[in-house]
Write a structure and sequence with these properties.
368 residues; alpha+beta; FAD/NAD(P)-binding domain; D-Amino Acid Oxidase, Chain A, domain 2; 2 domains; 8-stranded mixed β-sheet; 22 strands; globular; disordered C terminus; binds flavin-adenine dinucleotide
Length: 368
């Protein structure tokens, strides 16, 4: 879609980023009658993603459980997690014992479905990258957008940053990113070698980190290795070598140049903004808070924060100035709670896995 040339395009809410958080926030707000423009740069490659059964309420609230159940190309059942620990053996967490299941997601198909829902609710969708965002006097924001064909301008009363881990829009408006723990991942996607998908996510801890694999909806197996970028094992070359060795187990036939062309390196750090909302802007999903992949919480939080953000924008537009503060507190609390749980898990594991990777997981925050 092209919004037009020359003159700025005016809307109530401009959302930078059309991933799960941005598309969902836009869909909800447009459904309530807001004039919403989503500005979406192309989706980057992702690691294999699984949504755990803890997300059931938010998925239900957004109608996504039903969507997943009838769309095997978007999501297939995940019955649990089987973890292997060098010192303590195997843990088995079976979702079926709780009478529920999780979901293995096909990200491109999910992205298409979320965009369709947003468009059906009346969002305008602009393919492009927001390059600048400046505050207008006395209120509102002006965004410069690079599209494939031309530069465009969008003006909005309210801006939502849904740009993922960079949070690049609100950082321009003064928000600061706090990194609690630095992790890096190398990930790839293979053709599945078995006729039936494995319904479990397999997580294998090693002295230098951990890796996981899960069978995806597209007849694929996704593998990712996670390590600490400050240790030797976390240097991209070494990490790539570790992924290559693991993949060899699955795919004897694969040439290493074939893997290299399909391998992606991702930031997997735990981080948050020092404030997630203020003065006509807010951040959602990874832009606000990014979780250690061990939590498997990123998508649930993208959806949950999008719903909370939509409520905050609506409240704010109705004159409730405290709504943004309440949103910020809620998002920060969720992150703090999750970090506390994670640090307990790491502390427990560091007792038996006595290597630099596991012992280094409990550390004070560092601002960047
Ligand atoms: C190794 C790894 C494993 C993971 N495993 C899981 C898992 O098992 N389960 C789970 O729930 N989560 C997992 N996650 C986290 C999950 O991928 C994220 O939490 C999720 O993608 C966040 O969605 P989002 O919409 O906030 O951001 P994103 O998905 O990053 O979307 C942001 C979008 O904004 C666009 N964008 C960026 N900048 C601009 C700009 N300037 N202008 C316009 N558009 C822009 C991008 O192109 C992108 O499409 C994992 C993450 C990693 C790194």
């Amino acid at each position: 879609m092209t919004l037009g040339e020359g003159t700025p395009h005016v809307c109530e809410v401009a959302i930078a980023g059309g991933g799960p958080a941005g598309a969902t926030a836009g869909r909800i707000l447009a459904g309530w009658g807001f004039d919403v423009v989503i500005i979406a740069a192309p989706e980057g490659e992702k690691a294999g993603e699984v949504i755990g059964p803890e997300a059931i309420h938010i998925l239900d609230a957004l109608g996504l459980t039903e969507l997943f159940a009838r769309s095997p190309e978007i999501a297939t059942r995940c019955d649990g997690v089987v973890s292997h620990w060098p010192s303590s053996g195997m843990d088995h967490s079976d979702h079926r014992l709780r009478g529920t299941c999780g979901w293995v997601i096909d990200r491109p198909c999910l992205g298409m479905a979320l965009m369709k829902l947003a468009l059906e609710n009346g969002c305008r969708w602009l393919y492009g990258t927001v390059t600048t965002c400046r505050k207008l006097d006395p209120s509102g924001y002006q965004l410069s957008v690079n599209t494939r064909d031309e530069a465009q301008v969008v003006e909005a009363k309210f801006v939502v940053d849904a740009t993922g881990r960079t949070g690049s829009i609100v950082r321009r408006l003064g928000a600061r990113r706090i990194v609690d723990d630095r992790l890096i991942a190398a990930a790839t996607c293979l053709d599945r070698t078995t006729s039936q998908p494995d319904p479990y996510l397999r997580l294998i801890a090693t002295p230098d980190g951990w890796w996981y694999c899960s069978d995806g909806p597209a007849g694929d197996t996704r593998v990712a290795v996670v390590a600490d970028p400050r240790l030797d094992a976390g240097k991209p070359q070494v990490l790539g070598g570790a992924l290559r060795l693991i993949v060899k187990k699955f795919h004897q036939a694969w040439q290493s140049n074939e893997l290299a062309s399909r391998m992606i390196i991702l930031d997997a750090s735990s981080s948050r903004l020092d404030r997630c909302a203020q003065d006509g802007w807010l951040a959602v999903g990874d832009a606000a808070t990014a979780f250690d992949p061990l939590c498997g919480q990123g998508l649930a939080q993208a959806f949950g924060s999008a719903l909370a953000a939509a409520h905050a924008v609506r409240e704010c537009s109705a004159g409730n100035a405290d709504a943004l503060v309440a949103y910020d507190h809620a998002v920060q609390d969720t992150y703090r709670h999750s970090r506390a749980q994670l640090e307990l898990r790491y502390a427990y594991r560091a007792e038996s896995e006595r290597t630099p990777f596991w012992r280094a997981r409990i550390r004070p925050s560092a601002a960047v």
